[in-house]
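The aim of this short unit is practical: by the end, you should be able to scan a pair of folded records and say something sensible about each. We start with the first protein, listed as its amino acid sequence and then its structure tokens.
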Amino acid sequence: MILKNLSVKFIKFYRYFISPALGNNCRYYPTCSEYAIMEYETENFFKATVKSLFRILRCNQLFKGGIDYPVVKKKFLATYGKKQKVKYWLIPQGNDKYIVIKAYNE
């Protein structure tokens, strides 16, 4: 938990202070930094680190780019009568795999 929080804080520091100086260079949507934050918030630390690293390595001129949302594998238990705040939508892809899409709550 500490490593995940530290990683997310480092990524947010990068997004707000370093990335604006470099310009908009990401070939994917969502951006690599937003993808990494979504991974860290939905997966364990090691899976999120590996998936984020591979995503960053694919973000160059040799790959086409495009829309690439994180995919997570989860099993859900029923929660009845509990009010929950939605942070991410999980779109089913089959065999307990879901595409993660950020929910914009207003």
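Turning to the second protein, read its sequence before its tokens, just as you did above.
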Amino acid sequence: MQTISLIWGILAVIGMLVGFIPCVGAFNWLNIPFAGVGVIISAIALGTSKDPSKAKSIAGLICCIVAILFGFIRLVIGGGVL
């Protein structure tokens, strides 16, 4: 489950970077909910992990939160949120 949360976080960050390309900023409307699901998955992985090293789920959680924050900022700056 930790690996899934890490992969989900990496995909969310890649989606965020695609959303920074001019004329593709509306992609953030899809990426923000995707990253939100990633936050839920990462939180579940963090809570249910019996492994002493929870680095993968923490990294996935951080990546998803960063993708949500920067995606929302990009939408506000680009006029996608009125």
